């Protein structure tokens, strides 16, 4: 079976004490094979989904968020169970390395400050956060071992990509919304009718995002089906084929995949500069508190007239990690720079200093230490194209792989409030 098995616990089985227990914050609301999901876990996940939706300017009910939360938690349990079956165990040093990366990314000086930020941002202890980080790394390892390295790419596929992609050396970005109606062989006709009806409603003037929230089986339903702005090499091939032929605001044809039927709406499309090469840039910075903007401007002027950047970093920067290396932040791909650096730093010449940059963490004076432009010759173009084809195929295979995991899973939803996330189906 391709669908999850839903076992309803009917009123004859649920006693009064159990009904009361269901309302307790630590009650079990679902079981995934031998693993349980508690109400507390689901409500925390739902709260996070609501927070992300608000940040993206979307609105949804707590019931909608709760259903999406259960979908996310079930998928996570299935992947972690697969990791245990494969014997994948993430060592402590890998977790600590990831925590160190997060401290650098969030501009946090030490472990105590990280614990405080985790408590404020996620409402959990560092012990729980470490477990979450370990789970994240584990799921990435499962994806790499089960899907990515198992996805072959032939020379013929690379050649076909270069021959058929319009301006293959041009980087494009598409911002899409998405509705998924999950289907298998047993209900394909019915589900096709459902998505055709949704498409007709959008054409008639109904809001795509609202319909996605209430009808989509996709993981982004809580955000109105918003897939975000993605580069063309990070979009599954069937979606990209449609996106290329859409105008802004236009609706796609119905797309059929192993998961079911999809509907897309193009929100925006952009074209970047030609891929003549990939700029890599080495940076260092002097980091100050937000309230010291005047002082930051003063230091910038001092550096511009010949002041010793390294000495000023040692004396004034509050980033204890980078201070030890004279403010060194290492190498970045220009396209991977944080948003607050992305609009300013690439315009600074090699050896130059940026204007004062404000981020959510403080003030930065960024020095461009070195710029490395990697030219794309024929060999590198082939390598680049192979990487795109590989990523696309792996993304498509992951969706099918997750469906297979679900198809062989035994899911019991104990709480009727959450049962709507899975279609009821009797064996």
Automatic annotation (TrEMBL):
* Key words of the record: Chaperone, Isomerase, Periplasm, Rotamase, Signal
Does the keyword Cell membrane belong to this entry?
Answer: no
Write down the InterPro entries for this protein, in alphabetical order. Answer: OMP_Chaperone_SurA, PPIase_dom_sf, PPIase_PpiC, SurA_N, Trigger_fact/SurA_dom_sf
Gene3D superfamilies documented for this protein = 3.10.50.40, Porin chaperone SurA, peptide-binding domain
Per the UniProt record, which EC number(s) apply here?
5.2.1.8
- Residues covered by the PpiC domain: 171-268, 278-370
**Single GO MF annotation:** peptidyl-prolyl cis-trans isomerase activity
* PROSITE patterns linked to this entry: PPIC_PPIASE_2 (PS50198)
Q: What class of enzyme is it?
A: isomerase
**PANTHER family linked:** CHAPERONE SURA
Q: What is this protein called?
A: Peptidylprolyl isomerase
The beginning of the lineage is: Bacteria, Pseudomonadati, Pseudomonadota, Gammaproteobacteria, Candidatus Tethybacterales
């Amino acid at each position: 079976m391709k669908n999850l098995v839903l076992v309803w616990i009917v009123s004859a089985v649920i006693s009064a004490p159990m009904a009361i227990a269901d309302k307790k914050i630590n009650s079990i609301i679902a079981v995934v094979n031998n693993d349980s999901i508690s109400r507390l876990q689901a409500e925390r996940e739902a709260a996070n989904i609501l927070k992300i939706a608000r940040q993206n300017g979307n609105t949804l009910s707590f019931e909608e968020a709760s259903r999406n939360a259960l979908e996310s938690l079930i998928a996570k349990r299935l992947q972690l169970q697969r990791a245990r079956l494969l014997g994948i165990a993430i060592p402590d040093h890998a977790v600590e390395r990831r925590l160190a990366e997060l401290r650098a990314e969030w501009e946090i000086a030490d472990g105590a400050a990280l614990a405080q930020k985790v408590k404020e941002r996620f409402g959990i202890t560092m012990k729980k956060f470490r477990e979450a980080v370990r789970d994240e790394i584990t799921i990435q390892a499962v994806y790499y071992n089960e899907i990515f390295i198992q996805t072959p790419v032939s020379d013929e596929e690379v050649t076909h990509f270069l021959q058929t992609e319009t301006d293959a050396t041009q980087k494009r970005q598409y911002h899409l919304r998405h509705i998924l109606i999950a289907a298998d062989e047993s209900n394909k006709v019915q589900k096709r009718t459902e998505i055709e009806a949704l498409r007709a409603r959008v054409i008639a003037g109904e809001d795509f995002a609202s319909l996605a929230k209430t009808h989509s089986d996709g993981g982004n339903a809580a955000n109105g089906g918003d897939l975000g702005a993605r580069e063309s090499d990070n979009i599954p091939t069937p979606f990209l084929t449609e996106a290329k032929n859409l105008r802004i605001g236009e609706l796609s044809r119905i797309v059929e995949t192993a998961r079911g039927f999809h509907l897309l709406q193009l929100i925006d499309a952009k074209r970047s500069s030609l891929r003549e090469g990939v700029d890599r840039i080495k940076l260092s910075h002097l980091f100050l508190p937000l309230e010291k903007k005047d002082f930051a401007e003063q230091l910038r002027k001092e550096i511009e007239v010949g002041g010793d950047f390294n000495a000023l970093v040692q004396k004034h920067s509050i980033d204890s990690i980078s201070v030890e290396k004279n403010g060194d932040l290492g190498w970045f791909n220009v396209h991977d720079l944080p948003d607050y650096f992305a609009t300013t730093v690439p315009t600074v010449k090699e050896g130059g200093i940026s204007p004062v940059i404000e981020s959510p963490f403080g003030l930065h004076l960024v020095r461009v230490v070195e710029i490395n432009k990697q030219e794309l010759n024929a060999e590198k173009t082939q390598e680049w194209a192979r990487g795109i084809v590989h990523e696309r195929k792996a993304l498509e295979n992951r969706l099918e792989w997750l469906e297979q995991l679900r198809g062989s899973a035994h899911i019991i939803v104990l709480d009727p409030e959450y049962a709507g996330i899975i279609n009821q189906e009797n064996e």
